[in-house]
TrEMBL record:
<dbReference type="InterPro" id="IPR043777">
    <property type="entry name" value="DUF5719"/>
</dbReference>
<protein>
    <submittedName>
        <fullName>Large extracellular alpha-helical protein</fullName>
    </submittedName>
</protein>
<dbReference type="Pfam" id="PF18986">
    <property type="entry name" value="DUF5719"/>
</dbReference>
<feature type="region of interest" description="Disordered">
    <location>
        <begin position="88"/>
        <end position="112"/>
    </location>
</feature>
Length: 462
């Protein structure tokens, strides 16, 4: 090797060594940079907290008891069979009546109260009616409720002897378009008579249930509205041969849920072993389910009864009980999917008897008001379906005074209430509540609705 070639080789080798060293140093530097904490930049987004203004409180009553087909000349004519007596309040709320035009000149009571001092008004109303006519007899009581965009009616039938009416009221200023889906033995159906029914502003529409789907023993009706919310209810009546078997005004459920609670089911008559005076109707609208039905006496005098029933999506199902002893009970349904439920109870099956459908009661977690109309043995039943004990303060806003009730977890309690009074129910934990009326020949009930709370603050990001 010549000296010049030796020098070039040495120079190249040195370059390779130096390059390799620089590359290795760069790799170490990059690795150290990744491992070392990097500076961070953060900024809180600009936001504004805004509280929506409360809207007016509005409740709509069912109105009078209606009769269908009392005239031979017009079997589809609707007439007023008995007026409804309404109690509303509290007296501190300045409620204004709203005009609702019903059939045959009926004018159901609708009340509205504007917010005061930025707070939504307290407003409650309820009504009752009784009659003893040759074709229609019984006692009915119902609460006046807030209009909804979706309602579920659990009760009634379209078999022989039933003459049931769906009552839809629109107290608003714009028309509502209503769809009535009937769930029966063939699943959900939207019959022509229940499709795109227009309920004009400030009016009430009455639809015979048998005109939607005939021959159903256990129907459930879903009422949906667009354009404006509506108040939907069911007037159910029975006739056994030529003997009237009772009448009821059945309130709506707002939504299906995995748990449904029906407090204060009053069993009046002794079991006769031949007829089922207590029937629990169930429906899982959108999925198959396993449902557990528990019947517990309010005073703890009887052992709880538990039954498990499979439910097929869209098909109503019923459980019948013919051996419950007289007393007051809470019926609870727990299911693996959302369900709707109602409980039928009859005083008997002869002349002068009556029946009622007990609607599932919504959960109440804030102070709520309810009114008590005229009726026999008015009683408030409070059910605690939670895991914590609840203390409930019951304030009589009409006569004054208050009562404190303790309700253990998983149990119920009952207290008498006075017809004509408006009460405020103040729970320390979520509860369910209902008011029922019962005697040997009269029975009715309605649930206590949670008062609409003020809208919570909204966070707005400009």
């Amino acid at each position: 090797m010549t000296d010049s070639r030796a020098r070039r080789w040495a120079t190249t080798s040195a370059r390779l060594v130096v390059g390799t060293g620089i590359a290795a140093a760069a790799v170490v530097a990059v690795g150290a940079g990744i491992a070392a904490p990097w500076p961070t930049l953060s900024a809180e987004p600009v936001s504004v907290s805004a509280t929506p203004a409360p809207s007016a409180a509005t409740v709509v009553c069912d109105g009078p008891i209606l009769a269908l087909g009392r005239t031979i000349e017009d079997s589809g004519a609707i007439s007023i069979a008995a007026g409804q007596s309404v109690v509303s309040g509290p007296s501190t709320t300045a409620a204004e009546p709203k005009t609702v035009a019903g059939p045959a000149g009926a004018q159901p009571v609708a009340l509205s109260a504007d917010p005061s001092g930025g707070v939504r008004a307290e407003l409650a109303a309820s009504g009752s009616a009784s009659l003893a006519d040759a074709d229609l007899a019984g006692f009915a009581a119902s609460s006046c409720a807030t209009p909804l965009l979706e309602s579920w009616l659990v009760g009634g039938a379209t078999t022989t002897g039933s003459n049931d009416l769906i009552v839809v009221s629109n107290p608003g200023d714009v028309a509502a378009t209503v769809q009535l889906t009937v769930y029966g033995v063939d699943g959900p159906q939207l019959p022509p008579g229940g499709s795109n029914r227009v309920v004009a502003a400030g009016s009430q529409v009455v639809i015979p249930l048998a005109g939607l789907l005939l021959g159903e023993e256990s129907p459930v009706v879903r009422v949906t509205a667009s354009g404006a919310p509506v108040r939907a209810s069911l007037q159910a009546s029975l006739a056994r041969a030529l003997t009237p078997g009772g009448v009821d005004q059945v309130g709506a459920l707002a939504a299906a849920a995995p748990r449904q609670v029906m407090p204060g089911v009053s069993v009046v008559s002794e079991p006769d072993g031949a007829n089922s005076a207590t029937i629990v109707r169930l429906l899982a609208p959108v999925g198959d389910a396993q449902a557990t039905v528990t019947i517990e006496s309010v005073d703890g005098s009887a052992e709880p009864r538990t039954s498990t029933v499979p439910l097929t999506a869209g098909l109503p199902s019923s459980l019948a009980y013919d051996d419950l002893e007289p007393g007051r009970y809470t019926v609870t349904v727990d299911a693996s999917v959302p369900v709707v439920a109602g409980t039928f109870e009859a005083t008997g099956f002869g002349e002068g008897d009556d029946f009622a459908w007990y609607t599932s009661a919504p959960e109440i977690s804030t102070a709520s008001v309810f009114a008590v109309p005229d009726g026999p043995d008015a009683t408030l039943t409070i059910a605690n379906a939670g895991t914590d004990a609840a203390t409930v303060t019951l304030v009589d806003t009409t006569a004054g005074g208050s009562t404190t009730l303790s309700v253990a977890a998983g149990e119920s309690t009952a207290a008498p209430v006075s017809p004509g009074s408006v009460y405020r129910l103040e729970p320390s934990a979520p509860v369910h509540a209902g008011v029922d009326f019962s005697s040997e020949s009269a029975i009715a009930s309605f649930v206590v609705w949670a008062s609409d709370a003020a809208a919570p603050p909204l966070t707005v990001y400009p």
